[in-house]
Amino acid sequence: MKCTIKYLLSIFIGAGVGIITVIGQKYLPINLNFLANSGAVWLIPAYLLSYYLNLGRRDSILISICCLVFSVFGYYIFESVINHHNFHFGGLMYIWLIYALISGVIFGLGAYFANNKNGCFQYVGRNLLPATFLSEGFNKIIHIKEYSHMVPAVIMVTSIGVIMYLILNKKDAFKRNNIFLFIGLMIVGLLFYELVFILV
User: How far apart are CA 147 and CA 106, in angstroms?
Assistant: First the structure.
């Protein structure tokens, strides 16, 4: 696949994710609405696109960034259309764009490591995405009183983390070193979500 087509694909998928998020926020029932507000969900296409295209380091990072940035644009542009107000750059949008840049670098690099490195780096690359989902799920379980109205979504996010761990790691899923590293990443992710919970 030519490089230009790969970038166009990331733009199209990213914008689509943003649009679907708006639709989900508007129409999903309250017990599933959390799925439309989950930053982790946006990371799925950004990571998997780079992972399955098996790109070089630079392109893997840039494709992930591109996908996440256009998720932000797709979300805010479509949100302004569906809610009938003018589109404008705002403070919250800038925050999400910074999140897109940082996450794009981390998860694009992770996808590259998952395909092109061995040992510890490969395990880190394969486990970034599932650890993020399990961290988010466990964070919601810890604070279940605040999220008792969305238990099905919490179960779903946690289940996605487990399924992704098994799919991305394949036969390495039950290797001791891989499990320990995965748990370590999950703890880091949980601390991050706890910080966000306290600040927000």
Answer: 28
